[in-house]
Amino acid sequence: MRVLGAHPDAKVEQVAAAAGVTRQTVYAHYPSRQSLVAAVVDRITAEAVAALDTADVDSGTATAALLRWLDVTWRLLDRFPLLLHPSVAAIDQGDSDRQHAVVVERLARLIGHGQAAGEFDGTLDPAWLVSATIALGHAAGGEVAAGRMTTVRAAAVLRRSILRLYGAREP
Amino acid sequence: MRVLGAHPDAKVEQVAAAAGVTRQTVYAHYPSRQSLVAAVVDRITAEAVAALDTADVDSGTATAALLRWLDVTWRLLDRFPLLLHPSVAAIDQGDSDRQHAVVVERLARLIGHGQAAGEFDGTLDPAWLVSATIALGHAAGGEVAAGRMTTVRAAAVLRRSILRLYGAREP
DNA sequence: CCTACCTCTGACATGTTGTCCAACTTACTG
DNA sequence: CAGTAAGTTGGACAACATGTCAGAGGTAGG
């Protein structure tokens, strides 16, 4: 998690070295590099699920829940550049019931509630809003990575953009 | 353009074969695979610039111009999956004055006009709006590529999302 | 003790990128 | 017509990362 999470381009050799084992030992546990990356992503998303569980308990308005969701995921996006990396995109294509899906599904549910309650505009496809949210999150992360924005500024801009996209009133 | 534009993962060998030459000949013209991709992207964006030139002449409102910009770029995104591919993202990092920048710069100018004229909300950073627009465009393209949306539906959803993000009235 | 289980060393196959060179074709030039 | 310059080709080779395989060694638990 430390090596791949921070340096998505790290070679299997480097991951093994950081773990104090050899390359072959890594392959003994994970059949391919991709499955190793998948495992790391799974662990990260497990953290996300846990954080969402503690944050989402007494769900107030959908808007407030959305902001908490953004807060949790943004923090992880900041800690693990791997999540921004293309190699991750190739993973959740086939394996649909991956951990990753859980986090996304929470957002989808949240959007459903918000639209039903009239907090969000209901004329935009929830599935699209999920994709759009992730895309904007990646874009915001990219701005930070490129040094064009600070983390806090990017988070603020992201919040405003998402709310606007959803047709929610800014609190 | 045909091979790489449609199949971003194509090997240099395949590009060479399609051109009726050998791999070495390709390397005689382009020092690396990346520079070859960059050249393809340059040609595509040259088309984009030409299309924008013919479409942008008598610029009406900024909103109308924005929709034309979206129309032109969306068409190219649809024709050349390469533009959605990660390998392209690695290009325009270093070479800032690439053709690609011209298309982006047009959007930035357009946003400036719209904000100055009060058509768009002026409280969001134009540079961010540019990044966000591209991100949403890629997301919409991804939906089409994944078979979750038709091209026309994705284009419509993209338009609405962008307008909403910009704080523009939907025409 | 001894048997699984894990790990290590070392070697090997594969595929792609990028480089080098000698030989060949083609077209232009004096 | 001869010669030259440029582009192309075939073949070979290095580098590098991913995977695979077999044999030797170590360690904990029965």
Fraction in helix of chain A? 55-70%
The number of helical segments of chain A is 9
Number of structural domains of chain A = 1
Assign the CATH topology of chain A.
Tetracycline Repressor, domain 2
The first-to-last residue Cα distance of chain A is 36 Å
List the chains of the largest interface with their residue counts.
A-B, 25 and 25 residues
- Proportion of residues in extended strands of chain A: under 5%
Q: How would you spell out the order of helices and strands of chain A? A: HHHHHHHHH
What CATH architecture of chain A do you see? Orthogonal Bundle
Radius of gyration of chain A (CA) equals: 17 Å
Oligomer category: homodimer
Identify the overall geometry of chain A. elongated
Query: Residue ranges of chain A: pLDDT <50 for 5 or more in a row?
Result: none
Protein name (chains A, B): HTH tetR-type domain-containing protein
Keywords (chains A, B): DNA-binding, Transcription, Transcription regulation
Pfam family, one (chains A, B): TetR_N
DNA-binding region (chains A, B): 11-30
Task: Give a quick precis of the structure.
The structure is a homodimer of 171-residue chains. Chain A has nine helices and no strands. Chain A has helices spanning 2-6, 12-19, 23-29, 33-55, 62-79, 86-89, 99-116, 126-145, 151-166.
Describe the structure.
Chains A, B: InterPro entries: Homeodomain-like_sf (IPR009057), HTH-type_TetR-like_transc_reg (IPR050109), HTH_TetR (IPR001647), Tet_transcr_reg_TetR-rel_C_sf (IPR036271). The structure is a homodimer of 171-residue chains. Chain A has helices spanning 2-6, 12-19, 23-29, 33-55, 62-79, 86-89, 99-116, 126-145, 151-166. Chain A has 171 residues and is an all-alpha fold. Chain A has one domain (33-166): Tetracycline Repressor, domain 2, CATH 1.10.357. Chain A is elongated, with a radius of gyration of 17 Å. The first copy, chain A, starts with a helix and ends in a 5-residue tail after the last helix. The mean pLDDT of chain A is 93. Chain A binds a DNA duplex (30 and 30 nucleotides) through residues 11-13, 21-25, 27-28, 31-33.
